[in-house]
Every structure is written in structure tokens, then in C-alpha cells.
Records
---
Amino acid sequence: MEKQIIPILIYHSIQSVPHTDVMRSLHVHPKSFALQMWILKILGYRGCSVSEATASFRSGTTEKLVALTFDDGYKNFLTNAMPGLKKYGFSATVYAVSDLVGTSNRWDSKNGISDNKLMDYSDLRMCVSEGIEVGCHSSTYTSLTAEAVELAREVTFAKETLENNLDICIYTFCYPYGHFNDSVINEVSNAGYKSATTMIRSRATANDDGFCLPRVPITWHTLPHLFLAKVLTKYEDVRKYS
């Protein structure tokens, strides 16, 4: 039997920004996003959460799935992504930074990246009510491999904070900046998460470690032909360890 392949797509902000914006690639134009969701639908894919994807690997089902992840939990998810997801019956995973819920992407200010509002807990509860998975993206969005980092606070306490405020269980983690090592993986596993996503580039399969799941970046510059290549071909797979 051919192994199941599930692209786990990385999105951040879904909004239009000026061409002069620093790191414009962090954004995807709402019209581009809408087209990408339509493409997935007509190709017979269902957009799902990370937990749904990993459950599919365990069960061995052959459903055509694409996991949709939205790092950081930007407020524009509600206005510019949620309608398209609902239109096609898609789910997704939104990764929230627990200490910064309801504020903005403060970690980006030192790099000159424009201020972008994050969802508050009311917004995240709305996501949950609409079938969107909320995952954890640490407490403060700091590199978890830094020498002075408090892993327990960034991983375990962050999980507890989100769970207490949303009254749900948090099952999936996303490493800030894609930085992780064995100590970080152990902390994530021991905290009770069931999966974690990385910045390693590839489509995911059941052979991948559930705490080192690779993903496929979707940016401002991902035109339709490139989007198709990323989802349908080995375009990203060959970049796995490059």
C-alpha cells in the first residue's frame, strides 16, 4: 500500500500589506488564500487540524488530507481565513502564544516587522466553537534552545495557561523559530502534548516522528503553480534536510 502523505501547510498572517513591508512573506493575500482553499477542494482534499492528521497516520486511513496551520494566532485569521475554511468544511490548527494572547507580535519588533494584532481569548474560544484546533506556540515566543530559556514555563506552563482559559485540552505544540533539540522534545512530550510541528520542509508521512513533524511554507510569493507543486509533488520533500 502506498504510504499516506499529508502536507502540513504553514500560514502566518492572512492580510494584504504594502510591498515595502519587512518580511512581507509572512503574509498571504486574502484572495490568494481563498484561491488556495478552492484548489484544495477541487482536488478532493479536506483541510484538517494537526491532530486529525496524526490520527489519520495512526489509523492508516487513505483520506486525502492537508493540515492547515496558522502560527502565532493573528486576529486576521477570523476575518480573512475562517470564512474560506467554513465554506469548504475545512478545519485547521491555530498556534497561540499564551502570554501574548490579545496583544501583538512583540517578538518581531526588533526586526522592523510591522505590528499585527493577535486573537484574544474570546476570539480563540470562537475558533474552538467552529471546530478549529488551538495549539501552543510557547509562552513568550522565544528560542527554546537558548541557554537561559525556562523550558518548563515556555512549554508546560504555556499549555496549562491556554487550557485553563479555554477549558480544553491542548494536544499540539509548535517550536518558535523552528528551534528544538532533544531536551525541548522531552519537555514537550512530558508536558502531555501528542505532537509538535517544525520548520523542517517536507510533506509529512507516518514515518515522521510525531514531535518533529515537517511542514510546507506558504508565503506571499506562493503563486498557484507553486502551491500545486508544494502540495502534489516532491518539491518540498527534497528540501527536508537542505
Note: Residues 14 and 81 are 7 Å apart (CA to CA).
---
Amino acid sequence: MAARGEHGRSLHNGLMGTPAAPGLPVRDIHPPGRFSAVRLSDLWAYRELLFFLAQRDVKVRYKQAFIGVAWAVLQPVFMMAIFAVFLGKLAKVPSEGLPYTVFAFAGLIPWLFFANGVGSASDSLVTNSNLISKVYFPRLVIPLASVSAWLPDMAIALVVLVGVMAVYGLAPAATVVYLPVFALLAILSALAVSVWLSALNVAYRDIHYAAPFFIQIGLFLTPVTYPATLVGSRVLRSLFALNPMSGAVEGFRWSLTGAGHAPWALAGGSFAVAGIVLVLGLLYFRRVEQFFADVI
């Protein structure tokens, strides 16, 4: 034990160029194994770093912006207005008995959280390359922080939606107690995709260009501007359920307004798909994590 201690202090002296104080413990940091499991205790130990990175992303996003956090309101409001004119008024898309503005707004809130979270998290490891190459911490903290940084925007937009509903004489339904379940599904879906894209983007920079393209396509493959009941074919409904955000959007809208039928079957499939994608993504992330500092 004494020999190991002396060796550790000698190694410390060689690396840092300064003598280590006698009697201080020496800790060896090893990279995680390629197939080792992700430990929640590691993430919990670095929870303050996660909060700091998420807070930094929020501040940077609105720094020197003329209207500041009002962008969290304007983005869904403008998109709601466009959809209401072209799809609600002109195309007469059904809205399950709701005013189309409320219908579209309720679907846009979880979708914009997903789209913005995945879009920023896919580049998060590359944009934090200096931090990764200099300091040790669980790299998973970075994409987690990038997704978490969009939670305040979702909360602000939710408050605005309640105000829009009040204009139409509507109030949140009793089913609003289930809202956290579907918000959790949206968060889980965003994390599942973000873990994959952030790790892949380190080795393949095509992800930077491909991610926004597929997110745009995903808007039309998710029942944001139309109800899921509009998909009549059973085969198409089965494929529809493979998109985890389908259950999140439908459930988010139902829990707030009570319109339509409870989408528990769709949500169950979405939870299963999101869980599988997340677990596989975590395994892949852990496998390549030790090479990030060399490749990035």
C-alpha cells in the first residue's frame, strides 16, 4: 500500500509539475469500460454540473436578445397562427371538437420541446469539446443538460396555452392530473434520440445537417396538426405507434383538454419504444464515450 501511495504521488508530481502534499489520498481515474452500465450514482454526483450547464444554455440562448424569453412564447404562437389559417380554416382539418388554435397549440408544446431539445443536444458534445478534452466528468451530463434547458420554455408555453383556452371559454379538464405522465414521455423521447445523435455526431458530422431535416419530417409524422384518429389503416396505426412522440402529443392534448379518447394504448407503445431506444442509446454512448476526447 505504501509503494502504491508513493507511486501515485510520483505520478502526480510528473503530471502536474508540483509536489503533492504528504498524507493526502491519491485517486486514480479510469475511463469507463466499453460495455459497462450507466450508473445513476455518477450522474447524481455531478448533478450540480448538469444544472450549471443547463442554466448556461438558457442564458446563452436569450443573451442580448431584444425580446428575451418572449421567444419561448412567440415561436409556438406564430406556428399556431399559421397552422390555424392554412390547416384549420382552409384545409378544414378536424380538431376533435376543439377550436383549432387550441388543438394545434396543445400539440405544438411537447413537439417544440422535443425538436428544440434534440436539435441542441445533437451538437452538444462537439460544441463542448474544450470541456470534454480537459476535465473528467460523465459525458452523458452534456446532452442531458441540453435537453433539460428547454424545460422552462415548455412551462412558459403551457401557461400561455391556459390563457388561450380561457379566451375560448375553456378550462383545463380533470384529466390534467395525467399531464406529468405525458410530459415525462416527451422528455424520455427527447433523451432517447439525443443520446444517439450526440454520440454519433462526434464521429459523423453529417448528423449536424441531417438532424434538422429529419426533425422537420417528424413534425408531419406526429399528430401535432391533425388527430391520430385521422389515420384509418390498422397497419399505418401500428407504424404510427413506432414514433414515441405520437403518444406524447396525443396524451398531452387529451390530458389538458379532455377532447377525444384517452390514448393509453398509443402511449404505452410510445413508452416501450422510447425506453428501448434510450437503453440501446445509453449502451452505445458508454461504448464510445472513452474515445470522445481523442476524436472530437
Note: The first helix runs from residue 2 to 16.
---
Amino acid sequence: MEHALSHPSPSGSGHHPWRTIAVVASGVAALELLVLAIVGIAVLAKPMAKRAAVREAKAAPVTKKSAAPKRPILSRGAVSVTVLNGNGVSGAAAAEASRVRARGYRIGVVGNAPRGGYGRTIVMYRMGLSREGSRLAHDLGIGIASPLDGLRPRDLHGAKLAVVVGG
């Protein structure tokens, strides 16, 4: 009876070439594993460092920068208002100017808006005068005020605010 385990090597030394191949393959696999581990650490380290920095920033106490002191709101008598007719109804701007004057504002120009078709009455203000514009809108029961929209500063004829009468 023959046994498959007793194959002599061709060189006759009794050395098995598969053992050498296995040792070399194991060495190459270990080296590849080491390279993959290094690459993995390099790829993951950057996002993890960013997340840690974000967590640190969130945990750090917030120091509020001191805002520039607000300037005092101008008195109604110091605010001039241009009243413009934006609905095309004759006398609408004059009637609204009377309401504005009755609330203590100075009236500038009363006239027609550069365009018509305003669906509702609006208050507009020059840059830096949002609080005065909001107060005038509240005084007139209009509700909101906006920066100049559709009007140029020259359309206000020197006034600080404008009321455009709509439909």
C-alpha cells in the first residue's frame, strides 16, 4: 500500500517548498495589514480631529462681544416723513399726511410714488432708521416697515421715512 505523505523532495533534502511559500505569503500579508492600518489611521484621524474641535468649541464658554451701543431713537418731531400716493386715488396722500402729522411727525413732500399699484400702505425707511420706521408703522396701524424697496433715497426728498399709500 502506498502513502501520499511520503513524497521526497526532488532535491532529496527533505525540505518542503510549500513551507517557504507560506512563510513568505504570511510576511507579505502582515506587511499589507500594517500598511492598511497606517492608511486607515491617517484617513480617520482628520475627521475625528475636526469633530473633537467642534465638540471643544461647543463646550467652550461663549464670550459675547460687546455690540456697539445703539443710538437713541429719534423723537417723532425729529423725523421727517415723505408721503406718496401709490394707489392713484386722488387726495389719498394728503389724507395720510394729515394722519402722520397728527402723530407728531414732520411732513416732508406729499406727492405721487414713482409707480402705482401698491396693494397696501407701507412704511419705508433709510438705512439705519429701522426703529423709527417700525415705530411709524405701529403708530399708523400698518404693522410692518421695510428698507427702501422700489424707492431711491432721492425719492424721499431729504426725509428719513416714507409712507406709500396703497389700496
Note: The mean pLDDT is 84.
